[in-house]
Amino acid sequence: MPRIAIVDNEKLKDLQQKHYIAGICPVNRTGKECIKVEADGKLSIDEHLCTGCGICPKAAPLAIKIINLPEELAKKPVHRYGENKFILYSVPTPGLGKVTGILGVNGIGKSTAIKILAGAVKPNFGDWTSAETDYDQLIEFFKGSEAQGFFEKIKKGEIKVAYKPQQVDLIPKTTKGKVIDLLKKVDEKNELKKISNELQLNDVLNNDISEISGGELQRAAIAATVLKNADLYIFDEPTSYLDIKQRINVSRFIKAMINENNSVLVVEHDLVILDYICDLVHLMYGKEDAYGIVSGVKPVRNGINVYLGGYIKEENVRFRDSKIKFAEKPPIKKKHTKEAITSWENVEKKLGNFTLKSGKGSIHKNEIIGILGENGTGKTTFVKILASVLKQDKGEISHKVKVSYKPQYLEVSDELVVDVLKNAFHKYENQIVHPLNIVQLSLKKLNELSGGELQKVAIAYCLQNDADLYLLDEPSAYLDSEQRLILSKVIRDFIEHKGVSALIVDHDLLFIDYISDKLIVFEGKPAIEGNVTGPFDMEDGMNKFLKELGITLRRDPETNRPRVNKLDSRLDREQKESGKYYYA
Ligand code: SF4
Fold this sequence. Notes:
Layout: E1 3-7, H1 15-24, H2 26-29, E2 35-37, E3 43-45, H3 55-59, E4 64-68, E5 79-80, E6 87-88, E7 99-103, H4 110-118, H5 135-141, H6 146-155, E8 161-164, H7 171-174, H8 179-186, H9 192-198, H10 214-226, E9 232-236, H11 244-256, E10 263-267, H12 271-277, E11 280-287, E12 291-294, E13 298-299, H13 300-309, E14 311-312, E15 317-318, E16 340-351, E17 354-358, E18 360-364, E19 368-372, H14 379-386, E20 394-398, E21 403-406, H15 417-420, H16 422-427, H17 429-433, H18 451-464, E22 469-473, H19 481-498, E23 501-505, H20 509-515, E24 518-525, E25 529-537, H21 538-549, E26 553-555, E27 562-564, H22 570-578
Parallel strand pairs: 6-12, 7-10, 7-11, 8-9, 9-10, 17-25, 19-23, 19-24, 21-22, 22-23
Antiparallel strand pairs: 1-4, 2-3, 5-6, 11-12, 11-13, 14-15, 16-17, 16-18, 16-20, 24-25, 26-27
Helix pairs in contact: 5-6, 8-10
The protein binds iron/sulfur cluster.
């Protein structure tokens, strides 16, 4: 059976520990060198000598992984980052005239795969000591697959690639100057005016790149990609930092740019958006931070359903033990015999030129209320008022409740995760720590965590505190779709088990649909005014919100997941006419 060893030397404490691990390896005890402490102090494992006994990963579970691979992976990989490092076994293939999505968990090699297609990473076919790969090697490697044709065209110079990277927040570190100057430099189509209109960038064109928000940076990066003359456009996570309205707008924009001569590849974790943008999808599976495989391409509906089902029949691969299913009908209106745990009436708050106003509303025990609305309409301000972080200018709030609050922007320090989450490790190991996979982060400092890791720690921090009401502001940000689905289950179970309540602000429609009993909808003009309406039951709240967005949702008959109807399709028109924007 093929086997790989993954070693994270940064997680091994000292030389003494490394020599100890080498000493307990049964193969080393026979005089061979399976585990070696190299001259530079790094620990390495010879995958050919390793018998997979499992002793060393037990001794250093955070640093060493020994993985038995399926027999079919006894083949050359496409790329390996180095000895005992991540391996990628295949790459996705863009379809001409199609938008193709890539769906998979973080750490499974999505970004590596698209960087290979974009020419930003040269594949080494498992030999990390070799010099640069040439295209003939690539073509030979993919002989007989669709990727062969793709790389042949790249070699002949027939395919030009434009690529939007995942981490738009890094752009200001390498690019200086005004937004308009950045866009002018790449405007090969002479369409700067049109594109900045469509992506609503006009108001920030004269701002410095370092001064614009995450959402504006995302749209500027999309514009910079689209302005290039290319045959393949790659968008790595194009909707992070965007609210739902902007996500729908960007999706329509990307769909509209496809023609019979170009291709688009999209990596996206918001499943409603991925479903809406793409025609086709590749699933990526394997083992996080160890190895990744790209599935054959599937029509997008089928691909997402297979993903939720956790089993790829054609490839006989199970990558999740259980299926994810959505409720068939919106939650039945709960009759509240109990007193509201908190309520508000005619709240008003002025912050500079922005005014927030609310009607009358309340939250009851054992309720999860989703909050939907555009960026800049005061969602975070309202949450802060309920959490007593901000004081309202006018209106009543009954503070009968103890509140625990997870803010939208997370603060870092050099504290260790295990110290910050003492209570969670002590009281909620099975409810929070294990399902959110936090154990492996326990000895990391907060300022060493990735965005997704920090998000999980912040959520656990919020939930570990005793409270009647938990306020979670954008908990799905930085998480992959799998983590979002797990998180919604963790929160639901936690709230139900404790008999408490939660308010969840988020822009992922599937996440909100899955987790919420009721909805609060924010209306108004971004940065000018915001109005808090609701809580409504799911159907009324979604109808109100979707009508404003101009989209209708239907349920997928197999999984019950929400899907956006094609604009002006028969179903879209019928649902709009009958006022059932949520689903018929
Ligand atoms: Fe040695 Fe492999 Fe066993 Fe680790 S798993 S102790 S490397 S034989």
